[in-house]
From TrEMBL, chain A:
Subunit structure of this chain's protein: Component of a P4-ATPase flippase complex which consists of a catalytic alpha subunit ATP11A and an accessory beta subunit TMEM30A.
Transmembrane segments: 295-318, 349-368, 853-873, 903-925, 937-959, 971-995, 1001-1026
Annotated catalysed reactions: a 1,2-diacyl-sn-glycero-3-phosphoethanolamine(out) + ATP + H2O = a 1,2-diacyl-sn-glycero-3-phosphoethanolamine(in) + ADP + phosphate + H(+); ATP + H2O + phospholipidSide 1 = ADP + phosphate + phospholipidSide 2; a 1,2-diacyl-sn-glycero-3-phospho-L-serine(out) + ATP + H2O = a 1,2-diacyl-sn-glycero-3-phospho-L-serine(in) + ADP + phosphate + H(+)
Any Gene Ontology CC annotation: recycling endosome
Major site of localization recorded for this protein: membrane
Protein name (record): Phospholipid-transporting ATPase
Cofactor: Mg(2+)
From TrEMBL, chain B:
Protein family per UniProt: Belongs to the CDC50/LEM3 family.
Annotated protein name in UniProt: Cell cycle control protein
Principal location listed in the UniProt entry: membrane
Keyword Ligase in annotation: no
Keyword Phosphoprotein (UniProt): no
Protein's GO biological process: phospholipid translocation
């Protein structure tokens, strides 16, 4: 494994120079070109090995440790630990070393295991068998051994091992059919062509005799672009040069279909393949909560440092006089005295840092990790998100982002196709049975087609009595109503394209008649129709379109043999054209497809996944902006958007498509649109009625928008304008997107000035890069494979589950983790600030207020479990309410619970409480006897008193925040208080033989035996909790949030249902 | 099957055993419909509203205010500063002529009078201020295992790695190991206080001061122990030297009571419990109430406090005090606790009233707003 990495590196290094060259030359079968042609330059390319693992056996420990300590928190704890080891500090190094060691070890084991899995996966891919042609025979070899220039044989249903250039196929015409589902999500079969000059090399021996070189561009990620040239050398003849395009290139990840076998030559291998270039590495995603947490952390770090600095400065100011520095009762040691004052001051500074370092506890990270890990189980356990049909529940792949679900997703992406769960024929008016060329009826009689619509049409027809049997020897066979087989000879297929928006077939019926059948969008058919029930059909089509169905018109034209000959001629001419082939074909089609007789119209309902529309509606109500990114055609995508209520009838559609930019310059179009939108905005300031905008943009235009334009001012501008437009649109539809473009859009939006949180949801492999790019990636465990689900952070069985995922789990998790983070900072302010205050009363000598055991265990055991439990099962509002009212989501949107004012409130509360603890205890102890028997307490009793008040206060504060008291809550909250008492009794109860100090001996018990201590503890707890209770009550009464309203309304729900909740009820019916 | 890129996409994700293993294992199983897993455990769902909090506020107010009054009223304390800072004060001379090597002790008498009789047991404290017993260097400078009677810590002169802990620095040893070692022990309070009642007829009556029971029982009997093996403490402490500032060795601390010598001397134990704050008091002795119960322990009248002035505090601007106090189950007189209770009680009561008005005014408005929307 290691050698391979090394080899890879070397080969890359060697090839490094070559990356500067624009093209690469591939020698098919590694055969040198004839000396006359050109110099043979053997080039080195990466091999076909896939490496996705991060570590090797040797570098695991250093690399992993390095990566772990790059986390600022870990590094901080390491520093503290080292300081404790080196200098004489108030607390023992064990207090910080042990937790750190634990955290690091657990993380390392987890990451090591994951990398081991990756190694295993890599191995299985790299060892996949491949058929390679060598010396005229087929040799089985491992995928990773494949080199550029190797000739490969691929059989039907096999996946291409790398990017290949098609040389020949088992079909006579040199074509092969390929499905690129896992690549770009299009389930259609695409046709690829071999260069005519190589398509006769149909056997191993022949292919081996092929002598040619290929010049092509360096690998680039665009799936639909490829430019190259093949030079074929024949003996004693000039080499023939043929141009190569994307239609010759078979991409890794695609699968061969309906073709027995092909021969092809490897062009791009390993990490150079277009798939690999389109694949984005899985980077660590950080949630907004984590970002806030880190920001707070930095604030606390500043507080910590300033505390230490203040204390150090004050210390030296205070002990300026020798009587204070070294009174007769408290001399320094000789060694200490000899030390330079600067070193002493620095040591003091570090000692203060160590003393106060508990303000940023390791345990917070552990608790947050635990919360995320354990919390994710609830998502997986949710039976509402379990799908009977697929037999799967929700899956959580990244637990780091649970709370992110509770963030507003300014933009929500999903691919339209994933909604098209089933396609169903709604209506069929065709008089005649129309057959389409590329349908292939398998004996098992299920249909594969380039579009689900066509499958639907054929299946629909089957139900109406016309069964399409098969295509055999260019004859299509149809079983009609009377169980008779009709045969049509398929002569030509005039493929569909988005400009013409129609397709045709020319068939010869058994009676010898030449017929041309055409189907297409109504707008493209009607102008070409000369007869038929035009008006009637038009009315029907319009009606269907309003219903949200996808309509097609069908027409035919019968050709006389002469006309047919002419047509053939035109087509062949165009097909053989080397230049402008597309254009000439289009011209030919245009000539042929005319003078139709209208037959009828079909309408296909694009049935969305269940409750998709409802889900989208809820999401919009919850304040999210929805974008649709799809590889589909614009029409299909737009229809889906209407069906899913993303676009309404009232929505004004703004188009930003290739068609428009061809008419006008991109610049003008953009400015037009932004003017429209902006005018609207200024108007809407006055009128209540707000025009709804929907934006449609296609891939080509998008890349033009994103492309840095030659004019220096241009690029940024276009982006800004585009974002500005989309910001004002309620929904945006991006069609004809390449996988990487989807990710680009996500990136673009992420970088826009509001820094919205993005969520991407999709089900296909083409959605992977987008899912990886977005803040939160959700995969649907769809029928198109599981890649999306595997690369996502969360996987759900159906689109509708997104609603519960976001509105319920997201909301709850966010509330939970926000409280967790804030509470942790709060309780550590309460914990450490008294210690800071104590320094003012102990001569800034770093004397800890609390005993070591309390310092260590405070965060680990006395106060950790209640908050962990809270962060797992708190439910401040019922799940039903959350589901019923998506607007509640707005309460937690935009990270509202972790904003600075909230943080400030918690910190101030912590400071207030800390002052109460400390000064309360101070005045209780000051100049008075605190016991019932006249004996006095010492400094450890003082600390224990403060600590007892502290533990009770912070635990009760959490109890006040808990809205959902299950028996577990009772158990843990009261249990942890009880544990504190029992531990303290035990800790002070005996002389611990292994300790060299016995300062806590009977301290706690003595304290409890004193009446004033009880009175004091009760008093201080009451004072500490009072402000928070008052604040809660006042805010709830005077400025209630929607959530709080919903909470207080719960009791009267049953009583006033009929009057108040009429609106909500009707929603109910929709969503349940 | 040819290699597929799909597998690449799986990197690290074995089907069904995905990265964060958590959910992976549940994949092909219908989730259990248990209350816990579906987050539907039965729960009490309290909401803090003005209505629910109101009674609590009133109750707290009604309980706290009386407690406060009891705390404020009860208890008697008398405090006498005998440092001798002023020229006029009787101990001025003593405070000036201080030297640790003084063999001759300086005594001074302070006159004071009691306006109220002190009933029941009276506790006598000495108080120091500006004395940082809680300084870290000072707090550390002790050896608990030595005080617990560990003989080894008495024997070692030259320190080995583990024993003779650094704790006692810089008062660990002079030429022999010091017993008891450390800064705390070294600075033991050594003034002697005596109290005399002046009868109306002018004669002085010494008031009996009991030294028993001034230290925690557990300290005296468990935490502090003399090294065992010999009942004769002189023998036990052979080979050790007394702390630098002490006039007599540890086994001669109490010449009157042989059970009060060595590490278990109660004055010593009291001193060893380091105070929390720089101004502190420590129990000096107890004046027990008279058996007949007819006359108060300390009747109203004139008293003399006789001080054997040994302990220097002027160098660090400290003060020395003598405090007489009566103690109940609620401790000594504690004005802070009483005032705090009264304040908190009143605040709660007032807040209760405020909330009551808010509850009536806004509680209804919210409900109506809910209906209209």
């Amino acid at each position: 494994m290691d050698f391979s990495v090394l080899r890879n590196l070397i080969s890359r290094y060697c090839a490094g120079e070559e990356y500067w060259v624009d093209s690469r030359t591939v020698y098919i079968g590694h055969k040198e070109p004839p000396p006359a042609a050109e110099a043979y330059i053997p080039q080195r390319y990466p091999d076909n090995r896939i490496v996705s693992s991060k570590y090797t056996l040797w570098n695991f420990i250093p690399k992993n440790l390095f990566e772990q300590f790059r986390r600022i928190a870990n590094f901080y704890f390491l520093l503290i630990f080292l300081v404790q080891l080196i200098i004489d500090t108030p607390t023992s190094p064990v207090t910080s070393g042990l937790p750190l060691f634990f955290v690091i070890t657990v993380t390392a084991i987890k990451q090591g295991y994951e990398d081991w899995l990756r190694h295993k996966a890599d191995c299985s891919i790299n060892e996949c068998p491949v058929d390679m042609v060598q010396q005229g025979t087929v040799v089985r070899t491992q995928s990773s051994k494949l080199r550029v220039g190797d000739v490969v044989m691929v059989r039907e249903d096999e996946t291409f091992p790398c990017d290949l250039l098609l040389l020949s196929s088992s079909h006579d015409d040199g074509t092969c059919y390929v499905t690129t589902t896992s690549l770009d999500g299009e389930s259609s079969h695409k046709t690829y062509y071999a260069v005519p000059d190589t398509m006769d090399f149909k056997t191993e021996q022949k292919v081996d005799s092929l002598h040619a070189t290929i010049e092509c561009e360096q690998p680039q990620p665009d799936l639909y672009k490829f430019v190259g040239r093949i030079n074929i050398y024949k003996e004693r003849e000039d080499p023939i040069a043929r141009s190569l395009g994307a239609e010759n290139l078979l991409l890794r990840g695609a699968t061969l279909k309906n073709t027995e076998h092909i021969y092809a030559v490897a062009i791009y291998t390993g990490m150079d393949t277009k798939m690999a270039l389109n694949y984005q590495s899985k980077s660590q995603k950080r949630s907004a909560v984590e970002k806030s947490m880190n920001a707070f952390l930095i604030v606390y770090l500043c507080i910590l440092i300033s505390k230490a600095v203040i204390n150090t400065v004050l210390k030296y100011a205070w002990q300026w006089s020798v009587d204070r520095d070294e009174p007769w009762y408290n001399h320094r040691t000789e060694i200490d005295r000899e030390r330079h004052v600067v070193i002493r001051a620095f040591t003091d500074f570090l000692a203060f840092m160590v003393l106060f370092n508990y303000i940023i506890p390791v345990s917070m990270y552990v608790t947050v990790e635990m919360q995320k890990f354990l919390g994710s189980y609830f998502i997986a356990w949710d039976k509402d998100m379990y799908d009977e049909e697929l037999g799967v529940g929700a899956q959580v792949n990244t637990s780091d982002l649970n709370e992110e679900l509770g963030q507003e997703h300014e933009d929500l992406f999903f691919r339209a196709l994933c909604l098209c769960h089933t396609v169903q024929v709604k209506e069929e008016e065709t008089v005649d049975s129309i057959k389409r060329g590329i349908h292939l009826g398998k004996p098992t009689s299920f249909y594969i087609s380039s579009s689900p619509d066509e499958v639907a049409l054929v299946e629909g027809m089957k139900r109406l009595g016309y069964t399409y049997l098969r295509l055999k020897d260019s004859h299509m066979e149809i079983l009609n109503k009377d169980d008779e087989i009709e045969r049509f000879e398929l002569l030509h297929v005039l493929n569909f394209d988005s400009v013409r928006r129609r397709m045709s077939v020319i068939v010869k019926s058994s009676s010898g008649e030449y017929l041309l059948f055409c189907k297409g969008a109504d707008t493209s058919i009607f102008p070409r129709v000369v007869s038929g029930k035009v008006e009637q059909v038009r009315a029907r089509v319009e009606q269907n379109a309003v219903e949200g169905l996808r309509t097609l018109c069908v027409a035919y034209r019968s050709l006389s043999p002469v006309e047919y000959e002419e047509t053939c001629h035109q087509l062949d001419d165009a097909k053989l054209a080397l230049q402008d082939r597309e254009q000439r074909l289009a011209q030919a089609y245009d000539l042929i497809e005319r003078d139709f007789t209208l037959l009828g119209a079909t309408a296909v309902e694009d049935r969305l996944q269940e409750k998709a529309a409802d889900t989208i509606e809820s999401l919009q109500k919850a304040g999210m902006k929805v974008w649709v990114l799809t590889g589909d055609k614009m029409e299909t995508a737009a229809a889906t958007c209407y069906a899913s209520k993303l676009f309404r009838r009232s929505t004004q559609i703004l188009e930003l498509t290739k068609k428009r930019t061809e008419e006008q310059s991109l610049h003008d179009v953009l400015f037009d649109l932004s003017r429209t939108v902006l005018r609207q905005r200024t108007l809407s300031g006055l009128s209540v009625e707000c025009q709804d905008y929907g934006l449609i943009i296609d891939g080509a235009t998008l890349s033009a928008v994103l492309k840095p334009s030659p004019e220096s001012s241009g690029s940024g501008n276009y982006r800004e304008i585009f974002l500005e437009i989309s910001r004002n649109c309620s929904a945006v539809l991006c069609c004809r997107m390449a996988p990487l473009q989807k990710a680009q859009i996500v990136k673009l939006i992420k970088a826009s000035k509001e820094h919205p949180i993005t969520l991407a949801i999709g089900d296909g492999a083409n959605d992977v890069s987008m899912i990886l790019e977005a803040h939160v990636g959700i995969g649907i465990m769809g029928k198109e494979g599981r890649q999306a689900a595997r690369n996502s952070d969360y996987a759900i069985p159906k689109f509708k589950h997104l609603k519960k995922m976001l509105l319920v789990h997201g909301h709850l998790y966010y509330v939970r983790i926000a409280e967790l983070v804030q509470y942790f900072f709060y309780k550590n302010v309460c914990f450490i600030f008294p210690q800071f205050l104590y320094q003012f009363f102990c001569g800034f000598s770093q004397q800890p207020l609390y005993d070591t055991a309390y310092l260590t265990l405070y965060n680990i055991s006395f106060t950790s479990l209640p908050i962990l439990l809270y962060s797992l099962i708190e439910k401040h509002i019922s799940i039903e309410t959350l589901k019923r009212d998506p607007t509640l989501y707005r309460d937690v949107a935009k990270n509202s619970l972790l904003r600075w004012p909230v943080f400030l409130y918690w910190t101030c509360l912590g400071l207030f409480n800390a002052c109460i603890f400390f000064f309360g205890a101070y005045f209780l102890f000051d100049n008075t006897t605190f016991t019932s028997n006249g004996q006095m307490f010492g400094n450890w009793t003082f600390g224990t008193l403060v600590f007892t008040v502290l533990v009770f206060t912070v635990t009760l504060k959490l109890a006040l925040d808990t809205h959902h008291w299950t028996w577990i809550n009772h158990f843990v909250i009261w249990g942890s208080l009880l544990f504190y008492v029992i531990f303290s009794l035990l800790w002070g109860g005996i002389i611990w033989p292994f300790l060299n100090y016995q300062r806590m001996y009977y301290v706690f018990m003595q304290m409890l035996s004193s009446g004033p201590a009880w009175l004091g503890i009760i008093l201080l707890i009451t004072i500490s909790l009072l402000p928070d209770v008052v604040k809660k009550v006042l805010c709830r009464t005077l400025w209630p949030t929607a959530t709080e309203r919903a909470q207080s309304n719960r009791p009267c729900l049953t009583v006033e249902l009929s009057t108040i909740f009429v609106l909500t009820q009707s929603d109910n019916r929709l969503s349940f | 099957m040819a290699p597929s890129y799909n597998a690449k996409e799986e990197d690290g994700h074995q089907p069904g055993a995905t990265g964060h293993g958590g959910a992976g294992t549940m994949t092909n199983k219908k989730p259990d419909n248990t209350a816990f897993k579906q987050q539907r455990l039965p729960a009490w769902q309290p909401i803090l509203t003005a209505g629910t909090v109101l009674p609590a506020f009133f109750v707290i107010g009604l309980i706290f205010i009386p407690i406060g009054f009891i705390l404020i009223v009860y208890g008697l304390t008398l405090l006498i500063d005998y440092t001798g800072v002023d020229m006029s004060s009787p101990c001025y001379n003593c405070s000036q002529s201080y030297s640790w090597n003084n063999t001759q002790s300086c005594t001074c008498s302070v006159h004071f009078s009691l306006d109220q009789p002190f009933e029941s047991n009276v506790f006598m404290y000495y108080g120091l201020s500006n004395f940082y017993q809680n300084h870290r260097r000072y707090v550390k400078s002790r050896d608990d295992s030595q005080l617990n009677g560990d003989k080894t810590s008495l024997q070692y002169h030259i320190c080995t790695l583990n024993r003779c802990s650094k704790e006692c620095e810089p008062y660990r040893s002079s030429d022999k190991p010091i017993a008891p070692c450390g800064a705390i022990a070294n600075s033991l309070f050594n003034d002697t206080l005596e109290l005399y009642y002046i009868d109306p007829n002018g004669s002085r009556t010494a008031i009996p001061l009991v030294k028993k029971g001034i230290a925690w029982w557990t300290d005296k009997h468990v935490k502090f122990r003399n090294p065992s093996g010999n009942n004769n403490l002189t023998v036990v402490f052979q080979g050790t030297s007394k702390p630098v500032n002490w006039r007599k060795p540890v086994f001669e601390l109490d010449p009157l009571d042989s059970d009060n010598n060595g590490f278990i001397n109660e004055d010593f134990i009291v001193w060893m419990r380091t105070a929390a704050l720089p101004t502190f008091r420590k129990l000096y002795c107890i004046i027990q109430k008279k058996p007949n119960n007819m006359t108060p322990t300390l009747p109203r009248g004139e008293y003399i406090l006789e001080v054997t002035y040994n302990y220097p505090v002027r160098s660090f601007d400290g003060r020395k005090r003598m405090i007489l106090s009566t103690i109940s189950w609620m401790g000594g007189k504690n004005p802070f606790l009483g005032i705090a209770y009264i304040t908190v009680g009143s605040v709660c009561f007032c807040l209760g009233l405020v909330l009551l008005s808010i509850h009536y005014r806004y509680g209804k408005r919210n409900n109506s707003a809910e209906i209209s929307s």
